[in-house]
Specification:
The chain is α+β, with helices and mostly antiparallel strands and about 350 residues long. The protein is about 45% helix and about 15% strand. It binds iron/sulfur cluster.
Amino acid sequence: MLEGSTPLDWHSASWRQQLRRRLRTWYADHRRSLPWRESTDPYRIWVSEIMLQQTQVQTVRAYFLRFMQRFPTVQDLAVADEQEVLRLWEGLGYYRRARQMHLAARVIVDQHEGVFPTDFDAVLALPGIGRYTAGAILSISQDQRLPILEANTIRLNARLTALPDDPRSKAGQDLLWEFAEAILPTKRVGEFNQALMELGSLVCTPKTPRCLVCPLKDLCPTCQQGLQGRIPLAPQKTVYHDVHEVAVVVQRNSKFLLRRCQPNERWAGLWDFIRFPVESDAVSDIELQKQIFALTNLDAGSFQALTTIRHGVTKYRITLRCVLAAGISGRINRSAELQWVTRTQLAQIPLSVTGRKISKLL
Ligand code: SF4
């Protein structure tokens, strides 16, 4: 519980009325032109909402346009090959989102005759869709009176309520949803929800909110008490683990060997070079040969260093040593989801983030 926060005043009808009015006026002047805002097609809004989870607007813009060009309707997405969906998603991360969306498109075609459902429970029942996404899709496309709560509005609403609890806690979530429902207007709900997200994204930013230009500054208890740096309460610091891995480029007759990441692995469904964890950077050639044989059934003669990539995935800080294997002999184990690909195929197949970096080096 945060000390020094004030009692809430959003229970007053006039406070909420002022919030709606000021927010609408501000949004009319500051609304960004974004490709998914050009239509109220629930399919387009759904795709944009899924892409925007954990990803910046600027990054999503290009991905969204490419995705829509290739899959303009839910039917197009439903009949697509998963590999193609993942290839178009490559670089956005959190690939489970793409696989779930692909699955949901098939459910829409099988169970809803290819028409995106407009009933809240039916939307919520689709794979990969939670309360927030269902509310966003239906309020924006159908103007249904449904609240939303995503990263930007969690921060904004926490400040507008001077939320004393951690916004991820049950008490915090309950209060934020209650607030999100209480402030909803009776008309133009989709526009109102988008205005909240826009204000959170452009003005009520995480580190230095621009309170001086905020249309809600007179209504905001957090600003009035100078608690912007303390609300919302910060999550506990992540403890990072150092991990060492090796990626081996196995090349034979101008083809490269790739392995498909398994469902329980990072980047499940995407392809990668032969990759495995090791104790430390100082791994011997004999150890590399053993690991390659275990994963592929191939013998490697020698190794040449390519590069070292350092990257982070969730709580892991990974040091990836990349090597090129020479003197390859033997036959690959077909059941291990291995595939020889040409340089052209390498550009088309969905690869892990580091797999793509290595392929560019080649
Ligand atoms: S006044 Fe500041 S803290 Fe309050 S909502 Fe506006 S930007 Fe956020």
